[in-house]
Amino acid sequence: MTPKGSFNDNQPGARSLRPLPGLARHKRSKFRRLFRYIHIRFIRLRSHPKVIARGLAAGVFAGSYPLFGLQMLIAVAIAATIRGNKIIAAAGTWISNPLTYAPIYAFNYQVGRRILGQSATTSLSNRSPQEWMSIGFDITLALMVGSTVVGLILSIISYYGCLRWAYHVKSNRING
Asked: What pLDDT, in 10s, does the model give residues 117-173?
């Protein structure tokens, strides 16, 4: 007999703390359904493939920048300017998410640093406030230059990849 107030797994109606056997499978099926839903929504878009591809390119470009609250707004503004699909542009910013922030921005910083010819080693100890501000400006400049270059390259790749896929989907819809 267990003391009052304690919890015993063998009691009737007690819940075990072990994960349910089908829980991982259930999560996978939820993600699979979500991706299938997004794929079907993409297929049902009535926009021209070039409009869809321009929207994705705008979103990928904006998603390359470390402007966390503004990426979707920038992507939609770019898509409106270049006559791209605004919904796809907003979705294209998802290339930067909590799982990819660190690698993307570290890579962008390294690209910008190399383009600007900045040194690889910077000691941060024993610096004056003016030197700290200068270092902060150099880091920000390198990150923004790198984000622009990487964003341009990724947006070109995503444009042509999405254009090819959108034409393929459109031809399958017509022929199938």
From this structure: 887 766 556 667 777 777 788 888 999 999 999 999 999 999 999 999 888 877 776
Q: What is the pLDDT of residues 91-113, one digit of tens each?
A: 999 998 888 888 999 999 999 99
Nearest CA among 146, 144, 68, 139 for reference residue 107: 146
Rounded alpha-carbon distances, angstroms, from residue 80 to 26, 39, 52, 75, 102: 39, 23, 12, 9, 29
Does the predicted model carry a pTM greater than 0.85? no
Q: Where are the alpha helices (DSSP H) in the chain?
A: 23-43, 49-63, 71-81, 86-92, 101-116, 129-175
- Upper half-sphere CA count for residue 109 (Cβ side, 13 Å): 14
Q: Is the dihedral of CA 74, 75, 79, 80 positive or negative?
A: negative
* Coil/strand/helix, residue 89: helix
What is the C-alpha separation between 146 and 71, in angstroms, rounded? 16
